[in-house]
Automatic annotation (TrEMBL):
Lineage: superkingdom: Eukaryota
GO cellular component: transcription factor TFIIH core complex; transcription factor TFIIH holo complex
Full protein name: RNA polymerase II transcription factor B subunit 2
Subcellular location: Nucleus
Short name of any one Pfam family annotated for the protein: Tfb2
Source species: Hermanssonia centrifuga
Main location: nucleus
Annotated GO biological process: nucleotide-excision repair
Role noted for this protein: Component of the general transcription and DNA repair factor IIH (TFIIH) core complex which is involved in general and transcription-coupled nucleotide excision repair (NER) of damaged DNA.
Transmembrane intervals: none
InterPro entries recorded: TFIIH_p52/Tfb2
């Protein structure tokens, strides 16, 4: 969700990312204009990356309940992701529809990298390591 700093024009985030940022109060639509960062969003940027990730994952859990996703399955998949070997590809063949939806969401958020439609990899560095700020 952060610019890579390559000097190229950044691509617009997906609707899912924008929805998460708006629902978490980090961005807001002011007078029916495009989304703008809020004071909460500026404070969020001052947190450690681990604290930022945990805050977004907690908001995702709230949204998952609203989307009528099985919360046990959502948590189970997140814990499963935390135990996967970094940099390795994993098959999507045996994932449930909820897990596939989560995979798409997490890919949009930049947490999961998906090179091919039939596999995914966990390339985030220690994304579930607790932080003293969490």
């Amino acid at each position: 969700m952060v610019s890579s700093g390559t000097g190229r024009n950044p691509t617009r985030p997906s609707q899912g990312v924008l929805f998460l940022l708006q629902r978490s109060g980090l961005m807001a639509s002011i007078q029916n204009s495009s989304l703008q960062i809020t004071s909460t969003g500026f404070q969020f940027l001052l947190h450690s990356p681990h604290a930022q990730l945990w805050e977004l994952l907690l908001q995702y859990l709230h949204m998952a309940e609203e989307r009528q996703m099985d919360l046990v399955e959502v948590l189970s998949f997140l814990f499963m992701l935390s135990t996967m070997e970094l940099g390795r590809d994993y098959s999507v063949e045996h994932l449930s529809p909820t897990q596939v939806a989560m995979l798409e969401d997490l890919r949009d958020y930049g947490i999961i990298w998906q090179r091919r439609s039939y596999s995914f990899g966990n390339y985030a560095d220690l994304i579930f390591t607790p932080s003293p700020n969490c």
